[in-house]
Amino acid sequence: MNANAVERLNSALEGRYRVERELGEGGMAKVYLARDVRHDRNVALKVLKPELAAVVGAERFLAEIRTTANLQHPHILPLYDSGEADGFLFYVMPYVEDETLRDRLDREKQLPVDEAVRIAVAVASALEYAHRHHVVHRDIKPGNILMQSGQPVVGDFGIALAVGAASGARLTETGLSVGTPYYMSPEQATGDQMVGPPSDIYALGAVLYELLTGDPPYMGSTAQAVLGKIIQGAPVSATSVRRSIPPNVDAAIRKALEKLPADRFTSAQQFASALSDPTFRHAEDASAAFRGGGAWRVATVATAALAILFATMTLQARGRPPAAPPVERFADPFLEGEAPTAFAASAFDLSPDGTMLVYRHNPGTGTILMVRRWDELRATPVRESQGGSNPAVSSDGLELAFQVAGEIKVLAFAGGPVRTLLRGTWPEWGPDGFVYATTDSGAVRMPSTGGAVEVVSRRDPDELAHIVYDVLPGGRKLLLHVALAGGGGRSDAVDLDTGERKTIVDGGGPVYLPSGHLTFGVEATVMAARFDPGKMELLGTPVPVLEGVQMSSFSLDGKLFYSPGASTAGRANTELVWVTRSGEVTSVDSSWTFTRAGSDQWWTVSPDGDRLALTESTADGLDVWVKRLPAGPRSRLTFGTFAERMPEWVPGTSMVSFLSTRGGGLDLWWQPADGTREAELVLDFERDIATYEWSPDGKFVVIRTSGPRGAEGGRDLYVFRPGVDTAAVPLLADPGYDEMYPSVSPDGRFLAYQTTETDRSEIYVRPFPDVNAARWQVSVSGGRNPKWAHSGRELFFHGPSNEMMVVDVETASGFRAGPPRELFGPVQGAISGDITGALYDVAPDDQRFLMGRNLAAVQNDAVGPRTILVNHFIEEIRARVPK
Question: What's the pTM value of the predicted model, to 2 decimals?
Fold first, then answer.
């Protein structure tokens, strides 16, 4: 494309993309570095060659390319955009600054065997995903595999399909072909237009052969010569070129390069499995030991026959199959100073293959995530994981999802940028590259590379949360932990194809094991039963397999890692404590504890400091209670089967407000604190109210709506004046990020709130109610849940590791804030959260903070082993629950 053409392209794409320079040219398109003007990012803009565009036609090409635009996988480079502009057909993909696999091959000639196999397995997972979505790449080659932060991603996915489908037989008229000769399958080489997944498997086999040997499997001086060898050439063996290649890898490559599609692997996943299976053999290599002649062949046959006879006699003598591996237990398998420092929910995760554990650790400077690989002696910190919890290792063991301040982030262990996916909690990986998470609406999922958020299960009003604990084989069914408003939980299964949700058993944390068993928790006991994944139902009576467990994590190879401890299910699990500004902790009432359920914890001190209102879990559900301080009685304010939560003292009145489902959704109600009158509806909002805050004069109530990040009507702030307004109106409602936890200053002139507009939760302040007049950032390295001091001279908030932070403020003339400083570090056993629930309240004298503590976390601290690793625990399950 000459300079005039570049000018034409820039003119045609003005306001959308700005072409900066040419990057290269492929068989179908020229590639340009361009600037995405709307999103302020670099992109790779690819323009179909004019002769190809003329044959293809804009309408058909754009129609076909829509199919590929929906592919979302961690090893597939996504398609951002496509279109026609002034006769140019173009498509847009992320600009990857790292090199292609072709660049690396040109530099290194051959790759280490383990590295080559790792890349091939990752590409195979991308192919498997695409093939399940009926998309064939047709042009797998080293130049289309980009190395992004050490991880392979396949580019131009399905572009060849779009071109081929749009142009049909007329493609040959251009002199261009879909596919690169060295990596074409025999059916492509013969011009067969009906190529399918086996062609991609062939191409990947050819690529892996080249990664290992330095050359494609078939070479020639011309393209015709190469194609002729592909069609009729003798089978090749990578081992004959490089003897260090394992036999199973060579066998897998030879099967992938079979001439007939029917003789290749039936799926890319089978190819990947063969590469990882040392016992895999194919065709002639299975009998290689018997080839040749003379005395050597005779001796080899005789030796093999004797070995088989000896093995047969040994098994007959024993009268039973080989013994199962022994169950092995190891207490606290960590070096000093590297052990986990959290032992309940969200604390750790075993990788699916059981080779490593990711866990929470506090070295004294705040919580981080650590990774301990069992083949190494020392654990190592996970980069950029400060404040992280809920770690989840991907199916291939290459990436980690975790939660920080209510956001789900993903990183590759090998390096590269940390990606923020969505607002939510409890991440879990699916085998197809999706990351599942819990939000206010239920369980959702998003491709780990980013994309649209899809709701996979919606919670009912009596359910607090849907937590995806496992994705069943095949990736089409989920296992949910359903947290209930009345306390406890159950295990449900969800069919993603039909939307059916089916309760499996009472008890939570369901995990399916390759042995065909389902495990789940009841109080502090792990139960197991045989399970039919297809029918989503138990096949027998559950039996206990392990008692005294706070939290556990299974791997697919049968390992179990758990923290022992007593259960608090079915009895009081929370105590309230006062924490001084220096961090000293004392019980509010040592004779009183209560039952808390899920994330909807909430406690608040009355303006005079004589009472507190809180949410407690009862047999009927969630209810509001009022307690006299310091050690006085408590009384129940709300009754019935409704979920009633988040009480607040209404300024200048004797009323307590709360959220209730009695009207259908979560709406705002209030009632006299002594219960002398029935509750009255304050605000019937069109969506669920997540949290709210009264202005100090009681004239305004600021509410935070419930919904996913980035969606209109998501986590936004609205304002309502009881007795004046007929409906709440938007206050801060930018759909690009979340606004949460509003707090109005004592003089009513400023609003502090938590927002994700800088891609992590920070604390900002704006004038109130005219929030658009100014804006000030208060926190500098993350912040959550702001609350004003009653004096109006300080603003408190939680830092990224739950440390209590304070900022000195001055509001007499405008707004000024000093630097944040820490009052005290994380409180042992403190209950924390981010989406809903109060983390703390401030006493009227500003000298103490009301916080909740998890009794199990406190009572089990430093009692016996903190953690236990069990190898081959699956054998114990097989023995107790035989199939």
Answer: 0.47
